[in-house]
Amino acid sequence: MILLDGKKVSNDIKNEITLEVEKMKERGEKVPHLAAVIVGNDGASLTYVASKVKACERVGFDSTLIRMSNTTSEIELLDKIEELNNNPEIDGFIIQLPLPKQIDTQKVLMAVDPNKDVDGFHPMNFGKMALDMSTFIPATPFGILELLERYGVETNGKHTVVIGRSHIVGRPMSILMGRKGFPGNSTVTLTHSHTKNINQITTQADIIISALGVPDFLKAEMVKDDVVVIDVGISRVPDETSPRGYVLKGDVDFENVSKKASYITPVPGGVGPMTIAMLLKNTLLARERRQ
What we know:
alpha/beta; three-stranded parallel beta sheet; 2 domains; six-stranded parallel beta sheet; Rossmann fold
């Protein structure tokens, strides 16, 4: 069993980006600038955005964090997005989800300039991805592709089963794994809450990508020997023996599934660190395109 170490690979990518930024500085060019907008005080979101800002510092990017109150109206947020769209100093920006209930998330994502949409959530970028055109790939799917590529995991002709159909991970992964090229060229089955006999489907899979958010959902008896497992899920499970009062668990019963897998991602330390690294990579791409 080989561990797909997202921590290590994300560090490699950050080192590569740092070198690119140093070359930009030597040429007297403006370094990439990423902005993040957070509305409200959701603890997990604040932690996540702080780690994005820290990652920008690490690679030499400029970054701007815009905090807006929980009572921000949809119009106020749309005005802020318009401001960022028109600001030539900003190469890419993200709107941290989830948003408060008074704001229509779809309307907000539609308002972001597709050329600055480094999250890859705009319908224009999603459509380009589906058509195999050059675009911003959502950071988590982009990170999964990068892990598979850097570890040389064979995907050609394989049967990939994706668990979960969210617009952020499941659906993009089902498209990307079936595209021409590497990683890709696999036959994809997309499963979800209405899928019948999911155990039968997963036991036929060469590659399983689970983005369900249900701790320990994928058990050893649901997979065949030498399966490749990508665990995108991350949940806080109460645990009185832990100093924090909880432990982080993925969708996969790691202890038992890892005994059968050829490659597997840990939680934490697998897909999570890759997401931030690929967000930085998308911001670098945005800067290069704008030049």
